[in-house]
Structure formats: structure tokens, C-alpha cells
């Protein structure tokens, strides 16, 4: 057992038998079943990279069953990497240490950032050797096998609904919808295949899911997270971040960046496109629901509102990152100016926003229209954010842009208290993110038998809004093109 998530175990409130370390090890390594467990794998479909892929399914995930927490919350436990299932096709159903560490750490980092996500209960080495072709270059090699125990209120995906709709199985589709409604309301309502759906309840659920999913994508943008594989089978019907594969976190701000080498050409799932992609995915879910929901106009109305709703959520999020209480139309200019500034030279997004808190609301009066206009403001701004710049300073060609931003930012901040601004910025801008190179260092150390970097990283991610010293520093130069630090494949 590499790691046991004590905090999550306490939150779930597992039965007493789980307190025995030997029991836990046997159950979480897939060598024995917990009492009452009836393991199963799930079948679903999905659109992958914009194309219908047909039937997919849990190729290496085995669900152990559900646990009811003390607060009444349902938790499904599943083992990822425990062996083949009915949906493994030609794969071995195993997972490697590399990908398992990435999922374990990132799901917990996301939870600590306050972003809805599946969770990770344990990380176990299997002792098996698993062969993978990391770069898809025809050079497979053995790696250590591992298993992650994932936990979530439900692992229901958009792809479950899509598969039922594609098969024309209305009864299955109704049952899935009923299950989704039961998991988002109090109490369980008996299901009968011939009963009519409560259309208003289904539409309300779908609208809520749309809002949750849009907020989720905005939260990813807030912290610089790029999922990497936003296929519809990787979208949670509970509004959670799910399936941590070739994900990444922005080091230098680059809206066109994707960590997934499979997507390097098309860049469908790049950072700046995630909002549009989740809207597209919600539209596919609406198409599936339309098979059994006769009110197509209501569904159409919901999906047609997605773009404006996302834009509104994004604008409000950016205002909070800047320390502004509520978005106003006049703020659109400062947001666009900021995005241009971040791209003007290699700039670490996380450090930039963290340091921007130090920029004073009320600077000295400057004579507008003179040669010195904005000089004090831009000097202060440079002093605040130099740590975020990979060049170490603002390049001369970018000084006019920095001057313009500094003056405009100070202008829109007028009337804002320094205390309130600091509160908004501190709660919106993490000081620590799970940088790709940090995870890779932990993986390489674990592979060599040293667990300390992993433990230190897990401890740091528990407090992402506090500075974590060297772990909060920007990406070192050696990691720029190091395997696993910038680009990743889906090999896992």
C-alpha cells in the first residue's frame, strides 16, 4: 500500500472491517472481495474527438459496490487497474504506477481546490509487471503495476445515456434517467419501465447538470487545468471532474496548449476550447435525452442558452481573480487586456495572479498624457509579477502593454477596499498547483523506491491557497521538454 487516504475514509465512514490494514490491502489490491460486494463493470458509449465511437465501457475498472456515508451520501468504490472486464476488448485491464500516481494526486488536488471531482481512496502496488508503449513509438517496455481505488457519489457518464439512445432502448434510457434523478434528490422512487417520466423533473435535472458542468469548466480555467480528453464518455452526469489521463496544468500561459500528444494536431481539447467542448458534449447528451423527452423545444432552449451562460460565469470568475466583486460591461476591456498581457511573453499564470494581490489599489496621482504617465504604476506592477516571468523581467517591447494594464486596472479598482479585493483574489487564485514536473518527479522517485517526494507533494496539495515554498515555484528549465512534464500520451 503506497497511500491510504485517511481523510476521505473518515468522510465516507467505511465499516469497521476496513480499519484492519490487512483487510484493506486485500480488498484494494483486488485479491479478495469486501463483505457484501458484488463486483461489476459498466458499459457505455461516447463521442471521441468529435466522432461517435460506439460501445465502450469499463475496460479496467471493477466496481466493488456502494457505501452509505454517515451523512447519507452514497459513495461508489471502484478499482482501476485490477484486471480485465467484459469491456476490455484486447487490453489487459491493468494500470501502471505512472498513470495511477497521476490520477491519485490530481483527483485529491482538485478536491482541495474546491472543484467537484471523483476522489481517490488508495494507491496500491500490485507487484506485477505491465507492458506499455509510453510514446506510441513501437518501443513497449515493462512498468510497475498499480491500482487506484476511486470513489464518487456515482460514476454515471454522458456516454451511458448516449449508448442507450443509440440502441433505441427507451426502457434502459428511462431507467438511467430515473437513476440520475434518484441520486440528485432525497429518497428513492421505485422505477417501473412502463411508467411515464416526469418531464419537468428531467428538464430541471438536465438544466442543473448544465449549470454544474459549465461551472466546472470555468473552474478548470480559473486554476489553469487542461483535462486533455474531454470525450463524452469522460463527462460525469454528476458534474464531476472524471478520468485523469493525459491532463496538465498551465505553466506558461498558452491558450492553445494541450498536454495530450494524440490531440497535438487538432488541439480540440486545448485550454481555451474546454468551455466550448463541454457545451458540445452537453448538446450530445440532450440529443440522447430527446429520445424519451417529447418536449424538444425545452431541451433546445436549454442548450441554446449554454454559450451565454458560460460567458457570464467566465466573466464573473475572471473578475474575482482580479479582485472585482461583480462583472460589469466595462470590465470586459481589462479582462481582454490581461489575457493579451499574459501571452505577451512567457508568463506563469498561477504565480502572476498570486503576486498581483500585492499591487496596490490606490497608487500615487500621476499626470495623464505626459511622458511619465503610468511610470510609477508599471514599475510597481513589474515589481509584483517579475517572479512569474520566465525571462525574469518585463521585456522592453511589452512595457506599453504593462503600463496600459496597470493604469486601467487601478482605474477599475477605484472604490474597492483592499481587504475585500484580497479576500476575493486569495480564494480564487491558488498559490500552488500540481505542476506536471512535480508529479513526474514523484513518479520517478516512487519507481526507484523513494516515497518521500510523493508524500511531500500530497501534503502540499492539501493547502493549495497557501504558498508551498519551492513547490510553488515555476517550472524549471530542465522540465521544459522532459517526458511527462509537458506532453503526455493516453498510454496508462
UniProtKB/TrEMBL annotation:
It comes from the Bacteria. Mg(2+) binds at residues 234, 243. The keyword Transferase applies. Coiled coil: none annotated. The active site is at 233 (proton acceptor). It holds the Pfam family SelO. Its EC number is 2.7.7.-, 2.7.7.108. Keywords: ATP-binding, Magnesium, Manganese, Metal-binding, Nucleotide-binding, Nucleotidyltransferase, Transferase. Belongs to the SELO family. Nucleotidyltransferase involved in the post-translational modification of proteins. It can catalyze the addition of adenosine monophosphate (AMP) or uridine monophosphate (UMP) to a protein, resulting in modifications known as AMPylation and UMPylation. HAMAP family: SelO. This is Protein nucleotidyltransferase YdiU. It comes from Pseudohongiella nitratireducens.
